[in-house]
């Protein structure tokens, strides 16, 4: 599964900004969603045959986000976490974010796998992004940075939406039992986070300003998760 998904997402990168990109991404996320359901079905069957099997446990994955566009990179990761039944807490530093993700292994594997492909892909693509405005051909460094930052946020939102769409389709096709199981999985992830971080408090979203044109451009080009965003022209 991972080899096929990786190939599809690289094909999407090769045709970024075209209708073909959406086709490749949709197929990749469909396979990821089906994989999650298959692992759930296997686990349920195993537990039904073995009465001594313990209830599934959520585990932790620690990851560092650094480099350029750190808050916007985190939006991509947090969107995938949210839609794949996991939970997250993070510690912001000046030069990086420390991120701790909690979830059942079958969901955490999907988050980690997609992040390891989409995060570098996103950072490669954004280096080729330029502001576009009628009547202008030159932009300041600050304008270009703001546009690219917005593009990354929009890219993340598109990924989140596509993952959500494929996940919901697969769950609907499996019936109500899958929805109940996935809700339980999310609750287990939240409980694991709370147990590991009992003093954690929710943080308000970033008030960072984005270019609406750059954000829309990122959505057209791509991928996953805008949480608590603030848009200003």
Q: Could you give a quick summary of the protein structure above?
A:
The chain is mainly α. Helix content is 62%, strand content 9%. The N and C termini lie far apart (41 Å).
Describe, in plain words, how this protein is organized in 3D.
The protein has 233 residues and is mainly α. It is built from 7 helices and 3 strands. It is globular, with a radius of gyration of 19 Å. It has a 3-stranded antiparallel sheet. Helix content is 62%, strand content 9%.
Question: How are the secondary structure elements laid out?
Answer:
Layout: H1 2-14, H2 19-49, E1 59-66, H3 70-83, E2 87-92, E3 96-103, H4 105-126, H5 141-174, H6 176-196, H7 212-221
Antiparallel strand pairs: 1-3, 2-3
Helix pairs in contact: 1-2, 1-4, 2-5, 3-4, 3-5, 5-7
Q: Which range best describes the helical content: under 10%, 10-25%, 25-40%, 40-55%, 55-70% or over 70%?
A: 55-70%
Number of strands: 3
Proportion of β residues? 5-15%
Shape: globular
Distance between the termini: 41 Å
Structural class: mainly alpha
Instruction: Give the oligomer, counting copies of the same chain as homo and different chains as hetero.
Output: single chain
Return the string of H and E elements.
HHEHEEHHHH
The DSSP helix count reads: 7
Mean pLDDT: 78
Report the biggest beta sheet as strand number plus sense, adding barrel if it closes: 3 strands, antiparallel
Rounded Rg: 19 Å
In the sheet with the most strands, the strands line up as 1-3-2
Unreliable segments of 5+ consecutive residues: 48-53, 202-211, 222-233
């Amino acid at each position: 599964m991972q080899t096929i998904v990786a190939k599809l997402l690289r094909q999407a990168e090769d045709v970024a900004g075209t209708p073909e990109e959406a086709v490749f991404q949709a197929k990749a996320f469909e396979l990821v969603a089906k994989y999650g359901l298959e692992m759930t079905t296997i686990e349920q069957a195993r537990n039904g045959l073995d009465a001594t099997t313990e209830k599934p446990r959520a585990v932790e994955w620690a990851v560092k986000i650094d480099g350029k566009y750190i808050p916007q990179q985190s939006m991509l990761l947090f969107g995938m976490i949210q839609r794949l039944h996991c939970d997250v807490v993070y510690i912001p530093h000046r030069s990086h974010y420390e991120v701790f993700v909690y979830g059942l292994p079958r969901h955490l594997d999907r988050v980690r796998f997609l992040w390891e492909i989409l995060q570098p892909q996103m950072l490669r693509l954004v280096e080729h992004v330029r502001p576009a405005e009628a009547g202008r051909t030159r932009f300041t460094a600050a304008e270009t940075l703001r546009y690219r930052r917005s593009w990354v946020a929009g890219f993340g939102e598109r990924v989140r939406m596509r993952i959500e769409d494929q996940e919901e389709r697969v769950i609907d096709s499996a019936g109500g039992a899958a929805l109940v199981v996935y809700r339980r999985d999310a609750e287990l992830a939240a409980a694991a986070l709370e147990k590991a971080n009992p003093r954690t408090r929710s943080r308000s979203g970033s008030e960072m300003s984005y270019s609406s044109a750059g954000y829309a451009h990122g959505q057209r080009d791509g991928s996953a998760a805008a949480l608590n965003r603030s848009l200003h022209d």
